[in-house]
Design brief:
Number of strands: 10
Largest sheet: 6 strands, mixed
Radius of gyration: 19 Å
Helix content: 40-55%
Length: 294
């Protein structure tokens, strides 16, 4: 996960974004949310970072990560990055007094709560440094968000898709916390908008095992595969579209259908970037002033 902060001085507001799909699980297994393509043409949430830099104007944008595993991995590759704590401390040293933190998680689930705990820990250790620390919600927290995300993702599907072609979206999912319920509602919304579109998850109750029989019954000859994750990372390249026998693409092929990978992460879609920017602009939860909520 990453955090991007605009280094704005006292009296102004700094915006920070946190990037990731499912940090704890992904980083422990693959570091998938932080995969950097071999071509180096597309790196970690590059398009979202560009969107925030554009919104920031001339102000600098910091990039940091919540995952110790990924920070160590990038450091070994000669690409050292900041932790959330270090980024907040650096911004404080620059004279920043008002901070906005934007989660780039999909749902307000376990990893989003973990982020909030990290932020609160920094505030507690450094009382009075920040006047305000407001946290923007993840991608999917309202019916309005869900409707917008469904429209953006469906519009991003390949133009080569033909009538009758099925689509399977791969979400990360989580078997802990409320994220499973959010993704269940998302899967239902996609299928309602387009009966040939299914959303399945790597973890959680809505596994690909549940979707594959429905694909077979649909009569589809081709199945487009697209990640429902911020970055088309390790899960997308291996679990979704990889050559391994147990990848979703291989299982689709074994079932007599043709897999059609379209490895485009959500972070590449302008409509998704706009939702995150809106959540940042409208952030109201102030972790530096929790007494005001008493």
């Amino acid at each position: 996960l990453s955090i991007m902060g605009l280094g704005i001085k006292q009296g102004d507001t700094v915006e920070v974004t946190v990037d990731g799909d499912n940090a704890e699980t992904v980083a422990a297994r693959y570091g998938a949310a932080l995969y950097i393509a071999p071509t180096n043409k597309y790196s970690i949430a590059a398009d979202i970072e560009k969107a925030y830099k554009k919104a920031a104007g001339n102000e600098p944008v910091l990039l940091a990560f919540t995952s110790d595993i990924i920070r160590n991995k990038l450091a070994k590759e000669g690409k050292p990055v900041l932790s959330v704590n270090a980024a907040m401390n650096e911004l404080a040293a620059q004279g920043v007094t008002d901070l906005k933190i934007q989660s780039l998680h999909i749902a307000p689930a376990e990893e989003y709560n973990q982020l909030e705990r990290m932020v609160v820990k920094n505030i507690t250790k450094n009382p009075g440094v920040f006047k305000t620390v407001k946290v923007g919600y993840p991608l999917l927290v309202s019916e309005k968000d869900l409707d917008a995300v469904v429209k953006v993702v469906l519009a991003s599907l390949p133009k080569d898709r033909k009538p009758g072609d099925a689509v399977v979206l791969m979400g990360h999912g989580n078997d802990r916390g409320p994220g499973d319920l959010t993704l269940a509602a998302t899967a239902a919304a996609f299928h309602k908008a387009d009966p040939h579109v299914w959303l399945a998850t790597v973890e959680g109750s809505n596994s690909f095992d549940n979707v594959l029989p429905k694909l077979k019954a649909s009569g589809a000859k081709r199945v487009w595969l697209q990640p429902f994750m911020i970055v088309a990372g390790d899960h997308a390249n291996n679990d979704l579209a990889g050559p391994e026998e147990d990848s979703w693409a291989s299982r689709i092929k074994a079932a007599g259908m043709t897999p059609m990978p379209n490895l485009k992460g959500l972070g590449q879609l302008k409509g998704i970037q706009d939702i995150f920017l809106s959540h940042t602009q409208n952030a109201v939860v102030d972790l530096a002033n929790t007494k005001k909520a008493d």
